[in-house]
Amino acid sequence: MALKLTDLKTDVHNDWCPGCGDFGIEASLKMALTEMPVDINKVALFSGIGCSSKLVHFTNAFGIHTLHGRVLGYAQGAKLANPDLEVIAVGGDGDGLGIGVGHFVHAGRRNIDMAYIIHDNGVYGLTKGQASPTLHLGMQTKSLPEPNINSNINPIMLALASGFTFIARSYAYNTRHLKEMIKKAVAHKGFALIDALQPCPTYNDINTKEWYGGEDRVDPATKRPMPRTYDLEGTGYNGTITADMSQDEVDKNLVQVIEKSREWGDKIPIGIFYQNETVPIYEERISERIPSYMREPPARQQLAKNDGKSVVNLANLSKELLFESLVLAQ
Amino acid sequence: MSRASVKVNDLSWMTGGPQGSGVDSSANIFAGACVLGGLWTFGLREYYSSIKGPHSYFEVRVNGDKIRSHVNNVDVLATFDAETLIRHAEEVALGGGILYDPTFANVEIDKIDSIETPVVLRIKSRLTKQGLPGTVSGILEEAKRRGVNLFSIPYNDIIAKTAAQIGEHQLSKLSRIVNVLSVSASFGILGFDENYLNRSIERAFASKKKVVDMNEIGAKLAYDAAKSQLKQPFPFQLHPIQNQPRLLLMGVEAVALGKLVGGCRVQTYYPITPAADESEFLESHGNFDISGGNNPSQKGSILVTQTEDEIAAITMATGAALTGARAATSTSGPGFSLMVEGLGWAGMNEVPLVITHYQRGGPATGQPTRHEQGDLKFVLSAAHGEFPRIVLCSGDMEESFYDAIRIFNYAERFQMPGIHLIDKGLANNSMTISPPKGDLVPIQRGKLIQGDHQGNGDEEPYRRFAFTEDGVSPRAVLGMPSYRFWNTGDEHDEMGHIEEDPDNRVKMMTKRMTKLDTAAREISEEEKVNFFRSSKKQADVTIVSWGSTKGPILDAMKLLERDGIGVEFLQIRLVSPFPTETVKQKLAGAKLLVDIEQNYSGQMAAVIAEKTMIDVKNKIVKFNGRPMSQDEIYQSVKQVLSNPAQNKRVVLTLGA
Question: Does B217 share its domain with B283?
């Protein structure tokens, strides 16, 4: 039976502010789930802490709402113990790039086959609008007493440096685009990041829906706003690394990702910045050491016989520590 | 020396040297030879927090019967550097022996940079008082005057001869055999058949024939060199005895074996002393044989993942536990400090997560490679808010093994984090034990929903945190159709969704805390405490303690009882939930109650006071980073007995 959007609804009251970008991300994720060939019983959503992380309670799939900054720990642990799960992690920019940035970097090194969506709005919403790691230097959003004193993290560039093998950006109110990005991220073999730009209508009065939509800069010819975001697809940009590329071509491609990730302001690219399926996923690296891993992962091993006795052969396991007493001729 | 004064199969042997010079491997080869000869061993390992250079030492006690602790005196000190001799010569008992390299005779004590200035000054002033020079010769002369036998082992000559025999011209390639030479020379004076040593060498270097050969050739020369210096039989002798097969292992290995038998299939860790050895053992045994069960390959496996920090370690293990895998993380004090927020999340979401915590000297970095039991009160209350947890403390190798299985059972049966509390002494010491039984502790998974039963979804929706009488709800895992659930660190309703309603809060807190009462009720008495009786009807002294002090206390008890002092000993193993009634009952009739702990304040005594209102007035504590010896306990218990009012708090200080 095909999954319908209504199947993904829960009875939990949604307390996001009216106009929050989180709604667009939630809708895109749910649409993507209905359109993907996934078994919803195998989908496990993980989230951190913040407005965005309440998403799991509004979605009728396994939903694990974890600690601030730690979503990737929990999500990776579950995926490794049961690689059959379709693990999708979500969290805010403060969660993933502030308090949790250490885990972000190391998740790239592992390259576990899962997806991670960062709700990127430049502020800490739930604590009333402090500057988050993606807010640019000198910007003063509504509740900041002084302009932001720190430079921003560029999530695309950091993801590239950390070894992510799928790096995309989308925009919360472009649900059709975001939905496609989510489908591609989930289908990607390896760790996939989507930097989902979103307005915070309550605390970010600079990067607003109107700002992203370009309503402050009307095209004199068409008299229509010129949106700040543009789709990389169709621009000739291609961030895909393939096995037949030379090292030189790979290097050039990486430089192009960095260049593209630096565009901001009047032209903000969305789409896939980088994809590289030539890097072995963590599960494959484990399988080289544990041949039975994918077939009998930790979550599916039977631990005891029917009488509760352990299945482990302790004698074989402790052989190297066992000393038979020798009887020598005296 | 008369024949009567010869001690057979009762020996304390020590070796030492710069860290990284093979001290551990020579001690293991020594102990291995003894165990092959049917004897029992206990090994005390002391080392600095560094990789190469600073002094480390390893004391191996050997006996014809099972032993559980080290002693103060050294009977044979096998040295191959000057520093070991300088530091430890004074520990060698009358009639004992020192093996030394004659080329170090003129080394001046204050020229050895790695000996701390206070130690140099202390030793030099000791020698000056006796009119002796501040050199290795002075140390040797001092020992000789005290009645210690000296054996000069010309290591360089033996290495040169060995090289000639195997046709190796680069002597430096053979320099590493020096530690085995000191072992072999020891056996030469102890009268222990050299073939046991050869078998032990072969085990240690199984895959490297050339290494085996050079060690065995050198060992023969060293053995004869030492033996030829005996004018009469050495007062300490080792004689082989018939014995059953036994294990020679360290605490970390006992825990690792227990984890595998107990079904641990995911272990996460961030490198830390002394816990990391356990994870390394697990990783090197990642695939193992199983029989029965549904795994077609008849192989079990454990996934060991090194994480970026301890926060990732605990959160990854928790995520793994949500899938139904038995998952653990292993750490020491500083790592556990980082884990506490994750501990609270596991408590809030009733996740059966296991944490193996190896205590070391604290606070902060403290004494990274040294022993302490300073984290008891910390693990009992770590993380904000109130939530139930299991805290189980092992006292020896066997308990470490079985408790590593039990802690998973408790965690799953009562759906709460389980902390297995061990310490550095237990982690790093080695011991000979009879092989534990792999099926003694059955695997119990509590209310885990087994199998993916369809059909539940059409009726009542599954409620992960359903209210029940015992507080424990049926537990589904991620990926089970028709058992969808939510988790959150927020207070939540039965479904697992955020809920701030005050009535729900009261019910949900009560549900979680009730599980502690359930655990207290369902865990059997013999798993909560051990009680060792005195041979006397009314004991003169009742000792209460926990953790690895068990070994020296049991050994000291024998000596005290031999002296006619009636001693009983309550070893508390389960600290959360605390066995209040049992402890009250065992301690109520005590004539003299003495708390023995390896920390400053007597943390268990404080817990006992809190839970039972019993004030343990006499304490024996030690917090210098070195484990208690049998003799220290023997002497200090006597000291307390001699005048309890004057000896309220005895602080032990021995150990190098």
Answer: no
Half-sphere exposure (Cβ direction) of A196: Cα atoms closer than 13 Å = 37
Q: Domains of chain A: which residue ranges?
A: 5-285
- Summarize pLDDT for A179-231 with one digit per residue, the tens: 999 999 999 999 999 999 999 999 999 999 999 999 999 999 999 999 999 99
Distance of CA B460 to the CA centre of its chain: 49
Note whether ipTM > 0.85 here.
yes
- Domain range spanning residue B553? 527-652
The reply to whether B322 touches chain A by the CB within 8 Å rule is yes
Task: Looking at the complex, report in whole angstroms how far the Cα of residue A74 sits from the nearest Cα belonging to chain B.
Answer: 4
pLDDT of residue B170: 84
Q: How far apart are CA B575 and CA B580, in angstroms?
A: 9
In tens, the pLDDT along A57-69 reads 999 999 999 999 9
Q: Given CB atoms, is B436 within the 8 Å cutoff of chain A?
A: yes
Least confident of B134-148, B170-184, B226-240: B170-184
Same domain, B384 and B332: yes
Q: Is the pLDDT of residue A330 over 80?
A: no
Task: Report which of residues B457 and A324 the model is more confident about.
Answer: A324
Whole-angstrom Cα distance, residue B634 to residue B107? 37
The pLDDT, as a whole number, for residue B454 is 55
Torsion, Cα of B213, B219, B222, B224 (10° steps): -100
In a shared domain, residues B634 and B506: no
Residue B446 lies in a domain: no
Check which CATH number belongs to the domain holding B428 and give it: 3.40.50.970
> What is the CATH architecture of A5-285?
3-Layer(aba) Sandwich (3.40)
CB contact under 8 A, B248 and A303: no
Query: Are B542 and B614 a contacting pair, CB within 8 Å?
Result: no
In a domain, B242, yes or no: no
Count up the domains in chain B and report the number: 4
* B535 and B517 part of one domain: no
Residue B16, helix vs strand vs coil: strand
What residues of A are in contact with residue B324 (Cβ under 8 Å)? 81-82, 299
- What pLDDT sits at residue B296? 74
**Cβ-count burial of B420 within 10 angstroms (0-12 exposed, 13-18 middle, 19+ buried)?**
buried
pLDDT band at B48 (very low <50, low <70, confident <90, very high): confident
Q: Which residue has the tokens 């202390």?
A: B122
Is B441 inside a domain boundary?
no
Residue in B311, B485, B489 closest to A62 by CB: B485
**Facing B301 at nearest CB: one of A67, A70, A293:** A293
Both B233 and B342 in one domain: the answer is no
Question: B245 vs A103: CB contact, 8 Å cut-off?
Answer: no
Residues B281 and B369 in one domain: yes
Q: Please name the member of B32, B293, B481 whose beta carbon is closest to the beta carbon of A302.
A: B293
